[in-house]
């Protein structure tokens, strides 16, 4: 899975094929014509409500793909986290990163191919040293 450039329509199409989901069922679920569903497969991005419905239909968290992108490619926020903790926020504040199997595989593949060193992974992706070594030992 390529987390840097996300084409959500093709990811959805791939999941539909994996699940062997029939087009009439999809059309019925979305109350749309087949042409409209095909357009969604071609779309690089989708409305969050549509993405939520696809997630429910295909029993797959498509939002997690975007979460992984944020973990890997968002700029570092050293110092901002401590400032945010002192402010009462209305929006939920997530303190822990979510490491999926795909993300772990991606990081370990970088190390295996010697594209990045352990130190570079720790610095660039802000993965704790102990967590990274645990992944190396486990996987």
Q: Radius of gyration, rounded?
A: 18 Å
Question: What percentage of amino acids are in beta strands?
Answer: under 5%
How many structural domains? 2
Q: What is the residue-mean pLDDT, rounded to a whole number?
A: 85
Q: Helical proportion?
A: 55-70%
Order of helices and strands: HHHHHHHHH
Structural class label: mainly alpha
Number of β-strand runs: 0
How many separate helices? Answer: 9
What would the principal axes of the Cα set say about the shape? elongated
Protein name: Transposase
Short descriptors:
0% strand; mainly alpha; 9 helices; 139 residues; 2 domains
In a few lines, what is going on in this structure?
This protein has helices at 8-19, 23-30, 34-42, 48-58, 63-73, 80-85, 101-112, 118-125, 129-138. The protein has 139 residues and is mainly α. The protein folds into 2 domains: 8-69; 75-138, no CATH class.
């Amino acid at each position: 899975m390529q987390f840097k450039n996300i084409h959500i329509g093709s990811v959805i199409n791939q999941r539909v094929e994996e699940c062997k989901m029939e087009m009439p069922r999809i059309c019925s679920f979305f109350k749309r014509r087949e042409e409209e569903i095909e357009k969604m497969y071609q779309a690089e991005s989708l409305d969050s409500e549509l993405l939520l419905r696809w997630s429910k239909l295909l029993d797959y968290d498509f939002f997690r793909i975007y979460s992984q992108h944020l973990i890997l490619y968002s700029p570092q926020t050293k110092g901002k986290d401590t400032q945010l903790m002192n402010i009462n926020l209305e929006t939920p504040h997530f303190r822990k990163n979510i490491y999926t199997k795909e993300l772990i595989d991606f990081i370990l593949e970088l190390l295996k191919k010697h594209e990045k060193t352990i130190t570079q992974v720790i610095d660039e992706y802000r993965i704790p040293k102990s967590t990274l070594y645990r992944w190396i030992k486990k996987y």
